[in-house]
Request: fold
Amino acid sequence: MLRFLLIRPEATNTSMASGLDEINSPDFIEYAKKADLYLEREIFKGTSIKGKELAKAAQIAFVTTGHFIPVEFALAQLQFESMGGTKGRSAKNNPFNVGEFDDGTTLTFNEPQEGLNAYFGLIAQDYLGDHNTLDGLLSDGFINKSGNRYASDPEYEQKIFKQMMFIDRFFQKNTPQKDFGLQQLKR
Reply:
């Protein structure tokens, strides 16, 4: 089994001074390529989400919080929350269902990038802020700083972890091996 570590800015070669309008860090370019590769799968037919948009939101969260959100984690949640922005109440502009609850919607977004930025900011600030590893977050019940679970499904974090492992294997089979900031250790 693999363990995914959160990466701090000083542990990567990401340029903190780079502009956020363009993804010019090699790490985030690779992030975008991997996301595009995964989202090209048949089950995501019709998605308008692009890897560059995910990478831009991940980069903004990283620069502002110091928390790197692995593409495998983001894609696993994207798949469960809206099947890549193709299913759900407000899937196009809110593909991660930020502010969506079993009994209704509390947040709306005007464009997809706004919804993506909200998700990455929420995860980085409210969920990863108190955890050193994604394993810690997932094994602690996917609970934020206020003590609230991310999802009502009691098996959500196990499903996310299982999907992350699937995505990791998919990338191992379909991309040249390259470490771009996600460190993997055997448990």
